[in-house]
Specification:
Strand content: 15-25%
CATH superfamily of the largest domain: Glycogen Phosphorylase B
CATH class of the largest domain: Alpha Beta
Number of strands: 18
Bound molecules: GDP-alpha-D-glucose
Helix content: 40-55%
Structural class: alpha/beta
CATH topology of the largest domain: Rossmann fold
CATH architecture of the largest domain: 3-Layer(aba) Sandwich
Length: 479
Amino acid sequence: MTGRAYGRGVNSYDLVVVANRLPVSAERLPDGSWAWRRSPGGLVSALDPVLEPESTVWVGWSGVPREDGDSSAPSGLDAPGIGPCALHEVPLTGADVEAFYEGFSNSTLWPLYHDAIATPVYHRHHWTPYVEINQRFAREVAGLAAEGATVWVHDYQLQLLPQMLRERRPDLKIGYFLHIPFPPAELFLQLPWRGEIVTGLLGADLVGFQTPGGAENFRSIAARLLDSERNGPDVVAPDGRTVHVEAYPISIDSAAYDGRARAPRTIERASELRAELGNPKHLLLGVDRLDYTKGIDVRIKAMTELFASGALDPEDTVFVQIATPSRENVEEYQRLRAEIELMLGRALADHGTISARPIHYLYRPLDPDELAAFYRAADLMLVTPYRDGMNLVAKEYVASRVDEDGALVLSEFAGAAVELEDAFLVNPYDAEQVKRVVVEALEAGPSDLRRRMSSMRAQVINHDVARWSQSFLDDLANA
Ligand code: GDG
C-alpha cells in the first residue's frame, strides 16, 4: 500500500514533520461519512509556530486502520484548512496496528523505556512489522521532501526511520526527537534489536532527548554497542558522520495557558466547580492519560491512607482524578483500568458518606476550557509518574497559576523535575514520603507557595514550546 499525497505533492516540501499520528484524527458521523478533527494539544501545539503552511507537510497515520481496497475508510484529508499544513497519510492496516503500534511500540518499547514498570515483551513477529512500517514511512518521506529539505522525525515508533531515510536521501537534514525517556544500558541492552535501534537513530544529524540524563544514556550506549567514538556531546556514527546528541526539554504554549486561566469565563467556571464539589477546604487534582507509567495508583493510595489516618478530613477535602482513555486495545491498559477503578471504588466505599464524596473520577477527555478551569480551581496538583519523558500537565498547571498560588507535587522521575526544582518533589515509590509531602504542601504558607510558584512560572513562561521547537531546528540547521 502506498500513502496518499495531498497538497503540493512530490519532492516539494522544505520541512517534513514525521510522527506516528497526523495532527488530525478521523471521526465517523452518524450518516457514515467522515469528519477530521484537529487533535488537541500535544505535538500539534508544540510545532504550530514552525509549521509554514505553504512549505511544510506532516506525515503520519490517521488513527483509523485502512485495509486494501476499503472504500469506506476516511477520506477528505485534502480539503482546505483541515490541518495546520499539508497532510500526508501513511496507511496502516488492522494487522499493522496490532503488531507495529500495539505490539512493538506499546508492548515492547514503551514499557522498556519507562524503567520496565510493566514487563516488556520481545516478539519477533512484532519486530518485523516495525521494520517494514518504518521502511514505509521512509519511502513516503523520501518522495515528499525537496532537495536539501529538513525532516523532523518524532518519537519511539519511528526510531529506524533516520537511517532508512539517509540511505534513500543523503541530501536531507534529519532531526530526531524522542518524547519518552531513553533508558540506561542496564535496561536498553535487554532489547534483542538494540544495535538496529541505535544504528537507526544515528542516521540523524541531531538526536534530541527530553533530559540530559536521557541524552547521556544514549551517548554511552551508542559508544559501547557500535564501538563508536564520543566527542563531547557528539557521537561519531559508523559511517564517520558526527551526530549531535543533546537535551531539548519540551514545553507548552505557556502564554496560551496563562491567558486562558485569566479569562473571566475560566474564573467563573473554576468557582462553579469548587461550589459543585461542596466548596472544599482542599481541592487536589490529577490529570493523565490512563497509563501505568503515570502513578495514578500512587495518589489514590496516598489519599486513601491520609483519609484513613485522619490526616485529611474527607468532609472538607476532595480529590479529582481525570483520566483520558488510552490504548484501550492493549491488555495491560485494560488491566490497569480495572485496578484503578477497583481502588477508587474501595476508597469511596470506605471514606465517602451520604453528604461527602471525597474522590471524583472522570474517565473521559475534558475540553480545554474545562481543563483550564480545573487547573485554576485546584489547590494542589498531583503529578506522580513512576517515569515520564517530560509531563506537560505539570507545566500546564504552573502556567495556569496566574496568582502564584497552588502547590505542585511532582515526581522526581518526571523529566519536568529537572526544570521545576521548586515543586514539592517526591519519590513515587516511597508511599510514606508522598503522604508526608502532600500534607506539607497543603499546610504550606502563602509566601512559601508564592516563592515556589513564581520561580516555576518564570521557568515555564521563559522556556515555552516555541522556543523549544526553534532551538531544535536552529541546532539542526547548524548540525
Ligand atoms: C508524551 C510523554 C511528554 C490530558 N487529559 C486531557 C488533556 N490532556 C492533555 C494534557 C497534556 C497532554 O494531554 C498529556 O501530555 P503529557 O506530557 O502529560 O503525557 P503523554 O501523553 O504521555 O506524552 C510525555 C509528552 O509526550 C510531550 O513530549 O511530556 O512525557 O509521555 O497536554 O493537557 N487535554 C484535554 N482534556 C483532557 O481531559 N483537553
